[in-house]
Design brief:
Radius of gyration: 15 Å
Number of strands: 2
Shape: extended
Length: 70
Amino acid sequence: RSRARTTLEVHLFGTHAGLRGWLLEHFFIKKIRADKRFGSLAALRARMLEDIALARRIIARGRHRRTWRK
């Protein structure tokens, strides 16, 4: 029996060099959009920039917490 794997794509804003070996806990604040296929790489890149801007606005509202630990 084959099991479908769930994949989560997480983007880190700002400097995140040197995170190897760290346990990163993520949590959901708000779903930005459903999965979508794009007709071109340019369209994908444009939408990613829109998604980033929206995510930053959501985070700026301050209804979240950060958890970092090694």
